[in-house]
Amino acid sequence: MQPTTRPAAVVCGVDDSPHAADVAAFARGLAERLELPLRLVHSARPDVFLAGEPRDDVLRRGEALLDALAAGDCAADRVVALGDPIRLLLQALDDGAALGVVGSRGRGAGRAALLGSVSHAIANASPCPVFVVPPGAATTIGDEPTVICGVDGSPAADAALEHAGTLAQALGGRLVAVHVRADAPAPHATSLMPGRQPLGGPVEDPGAATLTVERPLAHLDLDVPVDTLIVTGSAAEQLAAVAAGEDSAILVVGTRGHGPFRSALFGSVSARLAADAPVPVMVVSAGSESPPSARAA
Description:
Blueprint: E1 9-13, H1 20-34, E2 38-45, H2 52-69, E3 77-82, H3 85-94, E4 97-103, H4 118-125, E5 130-133, E6 146-150, H5 155-171, E7 174-181, H6 206-217, E8 226-232, H7 235-244, E9 249-254, H8 269-276, E10 281-284
Parallel strand pairs: 1-2, 1-4, 2-3, 4-5, 6-7, 6-9, 7-8, 9-10
Antiparallel strand pairs: 5-10
Helix pairs in contact: 3-4, 7-8
């Protein structure tokens, strides 16, 4: 028998940490702005063999948690179950999700994500784009948010840019395509000034950098303001810095390859941003369906 597919929704996976309230609040605001239903998903405990009163107790507590996180939204769907949170979330995302939302724990490139490696695994294996909300990130979506997308000339970045354009259009905001030049002075550079820096690596031709940004934009048909920016330094730091300079922003990056353990665009950029970016980060995996509304006719 074929499974019943639910209407496209914003699927938000939450745990019982204090950060879950911010994650759910962002998902709720995103669903409202995009006029999509909200589905909250929670793994009450990984142990699927729990039985009897202990099982009933953890499920009741899970249901109470989602009721609180729904913040009075009676229309929000709630899924509480036992089992591996990655498997549970991927099943929910496979069931007609338009977008996913998860949180991350801790700051810094080496810190574990929500429920261990959940946010990293979900963002890379999801059939749809997934927003990762770092701790302390601004979760309010402004009236005209800035959607900032990192581009590096790869097919993964081009796909991410299509999704970024579609999101900017849906939210009534603007799109900024950012390319971080290869002649960074050091792995942890902070300079925003273009051009060759001391101790830099191979010099990237300025014309090539401009083409890297403008070429994928030429294939999109967008009815939103579009800006381009070429900066120098560490990709994760520069993208975060650009986002921090906006009143309301969302970052967008792509991933190279499909599966929980594949590396992200720019190497570890999505992992770094998911850990400590000042705004939510939309990660577009290789398996995400391309948004046709962003393509030129």
